[in-house]
Amino acid sequence: MSTSNPIILYDGVCGLCNRLNQFVLKRDRNDRFRFAAMQSEFAGKVLERRGVNPQVLDTMYLLLNYSQPDERLVARSEAAVQILEQLGGVWRALASIVQVLPRWFRDKAYNLIARNRYQIFGKFQTCQIPDERDRSKFLDL
Predict the structure, then answer these.
(1) From the CB of residue 69, how many other CB atoms can be counted at a distance below 10 Å?
(2) Less Cβ crowding at N or C end of the chain, within 10 Å?
(3) What's the pLDDT at 85?
(4) What are the contacts of 45-52 at 24+ separation with CB within 8 A?
(5) pLDDT higher than threshold 80 for residue 16
(6) Cα 41 from Cα 33, distance rounded (Å)
(7) Three-state secondary structure along the chain?
(8) Residue 16 neighbours by CB under 8 Å, 6+ apart
(9) Can you tell me the mean pLDDT for 74-95?
């Protein structure tokens, strides 16, 4: 794995999170993104190293510059905005529009959705297994 690949850390049993992964996989024309469920050993170690409780699953993270001195963990709406930016095209334009909103407002909306995500989007008993063509992009398999 290239250290420049951004890694999406997501709740592996969340229907919304799994839909987000499918959305990104379909639009990631430059094959940049990698994925790891927060329930995985990989994500657990990363989150603990960054001072984040890996048992709290209500936040999506984007890990940038994995294992590098400038490694960063971006959370909530800022993670979503950066994912859209990196997808490029119309998604970058949408990210620019969303970024106009103050982060506190974006995070408040994010938290409202996160609190209700299982009721709205469903919950799986186990982490979803990606299609064969995408499995190499998931660091926790």
Answers:
(1) 5
(2) N
(3) 95
(4) 46/7, 46/9, 46/73, 47/9, 47/73
(5) yes
(6) 19
(7) CCCCCCEEEECCCEHHHHHHHHHHHHHCCCCCCEEEECCCHHHHHHHHHCCCCCCCCCCCEEEECCCCCCCEEEEHHHHHHHHHHHHCHHHHHHHHHHHCCCHHHHHHHHHHHHHHHHHHHCECCCCCCCCHHHHHHECCC
(8) 113, 117, 120, 121
(9) 95
User: What is the Cα–Cα distance from 73 to 53, expressed in whole angstroms?
Assistant: 13
Q: Is the Cβ–Cβ distance between 15 and 41 less than 8 Å?
A: no
Nearest Cα to 58, choosing from 137, 115, 20? 115
Region of 69 on the Ramachandran plot (φ > 0 left; ψ -120 to 50 alpha; else beta) = alpha
| Sheet containing 7-10: order of strands | 34-37, 7-10, 61-64, 72-75
Mean pLDDT on 72-100: 95
* Residue matched to tokens 């064969």: 132
